[in-house]
Amino acid sequence: MNDTSKQAQEMEAMAQAIVLAHAQRFGVSPDANAQASNFGSDDAVYRAAKTAALRLGFIEIDAEVLGLAWQAQTQRTGRFEAQSWPVSAADFGMGSFPPAARADAFAPCPLNLGLYAVLPDAAWVGRCARGGVPTVQLRFKSDDAQAIEREVHAAVAEVSGTDALLFINDHWRIAIAAGAYGVHLGQEDLDALTASELQEIRDAGLRLGVSTHGYAEMLRADKVSPSYIAMGAVFPTTLKKMATVPQGVARLDGYAQLTRGYPQVAIGGIDEARLASVLATGVGSVAVVRAIVTAEDPEGTAARWQAAISAGV
Hints:
- The protein folds into 2 domains: 3-92, no CATH class; 99-312, Aldolase class I (TIM Barrel, Alpha-Beta Barrel).
- It is built from 12 helices and 8 strands.
- The protein has helices at 3-26, 44-55, 60-77, 122-130, 145-159, 172-178, 187-192, 195-203, 215-222, 248-258, 272-279, 298-312; strands at residues 114-119, 135-138, 165-169, 182-185, 207-212, 228-231, 264-267, 285-288.
- It has an 8-stranded parallel barrel, surrounded by 7 helices.
- The longest helix has 24 residues, at 3-26.
- The termini are far apart.
């Protein structure tokens, strides 16, 4: 057997060992023999771990991140362990922890944001804020710039005199002008910002929350040291078309361990029956979009959720 064949066999054996160790936790891809479209190096552990991650159902950009992290973990510890799923921020090349202590960190927010209601308009923001929901987000959808500006200013006025923390979805310049607590951005919105625009948000003291849907997006978010990281969609949701499959509680647990120094928000398809399993990962906040606004008793529903979250963290 030549050296190339021997290395391929060793890599395949490591990949199979990783899949065997974690298949029960993550499940297995329908393509049980999945192979990467490309590799960035010949390192055997990296190649094995990336291959295994694909077979466990991770998309290739996340499998790439896991391959590199497993390589770094193995180099750091001096041994390959199939059972040891990477969870060290250093192995993923993330910034120093706690993130709030970094020089480029956005203004901090509470580590446990509690029940986080994502709401369609200022009236709902006010109702939830007065009903004791600790964190609210205005996600107002309109192509009318003046209507957006009015709604953001109205939402800021609605939370005045309450303890609720108000984040504005997307419209960061208006959020600054209106005096909102923070802004929430998706990955595409974050990627579209220039360094000077990001600094403008920092200088204004606005808190920044960022949506993530897997390891690669978490690393991109970590590069700007946001105030919190949102992780999802945990379960299937019909609210928007997702580029990634539902992450599930097992992946959420891995993400939560990796980003433990950040305030963490779990989002996507979470209902009361699933709440306990989500809280068991240690996240300090659960975001809901429809659970409150479609409830017969929104205030009672919010109080129940918040009590469960407070008890869980």
